[in-house]
Amino acid sequence: MILVVALFGLFVIESVFQTTARPAQPDFSGSWTLQEPEPAPPNIATTLIVKQTITDRNVYGKPITPSYSAIEIERRVGSETRSERHLIGVMGGTIGGIREDGTSSKSEFSTQFDGERLVLKNATYSAPDSLSSRHEETWFFDDKSRLVVVVTDQASGLEPKTWTLVYRRF
Fold it and tell me: Are 142 and 169 within 8 A, CB to CB?
């Protein structure tokens, strides 16, 4: 009888731990409004609505260490709303067919945590190693718990442009 009670107690403790455990990485979920720079650069979202998905079970339903598996971002730029979803920890891309001139195009994307920072990358290439465009965002919290997003854009033959955007919760 004592063994049954002890096992039940361990089950309850494990269940509580599994439901209250949080991922080690930061959670950027929330509603954010652009604080800096003022005024906003063109095509930069003045409002972000962010939701991160926590996964705490594997495909077989067994408990695993909780981690963020996806991030959904709604960006409001002027009167336009852009929605996107990124799978965290996923890298991928595409390779196009061979053109008449013998070249092909490709694209690459990734969304990864680098310590306390979330890095989102997209790049396209018009030839195997010839960059057409690159977009990278690095998300992190500053010492005032504001969301900082460093955006770098680069087009073929041009110097990269970088913006540091600071958002506050609303």
Answer: no
Reported as a single tens digit per residue, the pLDDT across 69-119 is 999 999 999 999 999 999 999 999 998 888 787 778 889 999 999 999 999
CATH of domain 23-169: 2.40.128.20
Q: Where residue 13 falls among pLDDT bands split at 50, 70, 90?
A: very low
Q: What is the mean pLDDT of the chain?
A: 88
Alpha carbons 117 and 68: distance in angstroms, whole number: 13
Decide if 156 contacts 129 (C-beta within 8 A).
Answer: no
* Alpha carbon distance 124, 109 (integer Å): 9
102 touches 90 (CB < 8 A): no
pTM assigned to the model: 0.82
30-36, strands of its sheet edge to edge: 80-87, 63-77, 47-57, 30-36, 161-169, 147-155, 130-141, 117-127, 106-114, 90-95
